[in-house]
Amino acid sequence: MDITNSTVFIPGATSGIGLALAQRLQAAGSTVVIGGRRQALLDSLAAEHGFGAVQIDVADAASIAAAAATVLDAYPSLDALITMSGIMRNEDLRSSDHMADAIETIQTNLVGTIRLIDAFLPHLLTRPAATVMTVTSGLAFVPLTATPTYNATKAAVHSYTQSLRQQLVGSPVEVLELAPPAVMTDLMGGADFGGMPLDAFADEVIELVASGTDTEILVENVQPLRFAERNGNHQQILEMMAGAGH
Ligand SMILES: NC(=O)c1ccc[n+]([C@@H]2O[C@H](COP(=O)([O-])OP(=O)(O)OC[C@H]3O[C@@H](n4cnc5c(N)ncnc54)[C@H](OP(=O)(O)O)[C@@H]3O)[C@@H](O)[C@H]2O)c1
Hints:
Elements (H helix, E strand, L loop, with lengths): L6 E5 L4 H13 L2 E6 L2 H11 L2 E4 L5 H14 L5 E4 L15 H26 L5 E6 L12 H20 L5 E6 L19 H14 L4 E2 L5 H4 L1 H4 L2 H9 L4
Helix pairs in contact: 1-6, 3-4, 4-5
């Protein structure tokens, strides 16, 4: 991905990682369109930073279709999609009370990602060069016991991304996967789960994306989770995280 000259839509950029990357991509020279459900925030961020802004609820098929039409109409040169929107919920699997959270998490994180890619891929395939970046998590590789459906959706998106990349071999669309470690954002309502500072994370991500060396964007802090299976300490890390009060 050419960070200096792309036109990129980032649904899930009204806060946190999406917003931090939006700012950096724009500062590097790209045109950035942010998305999310919170219209007032979209308006103020667009005014403050000069982003394009389009309202979208990725848990709603009709909203994705409408937003895609709006974005592609206003930005026919769009050549990058970052599927950033996500939610993360604690679930106690001993009670069926968790089911509503499980379904909402799957609709947002997994079905939302699949629908977004479906909505934009036909257009991206017409561009001379384009990028789809999915967003998973270190928890795709070692689950956090407290958030089972979240972990499962991220593992599913990791797998889906690999199939997508393989299906698009020989096409103009490169497929990247951003797998963040714990980062300090509002993802769990601002709860402090020992994440790395957002700015340091976003700077490292931009450097990795600009270098273009790998299809998986893995900052240093996520590598113990990403490679736990290979390193033979998957179970040890899983138990350590389960015992850490999460
Ligand atoms: N922070 C971490 O430790 C961490 C670690 C690994 C992966 N991630 C992933 O990074 C991504 C961004 O999370 P974050 O940490 O930056 O948290 P965040 O600050 O809570 O950002 C989440 C973003 O997703 C959007 N969103 C949520 N539900 C949506 C929906 N139904 N439709 C459209 N947009 C929706 C939110 O916008 P609206 O509320 O305006 O809709 C917001 O912009 C997520 O996919 C998350 O799983 C985060």
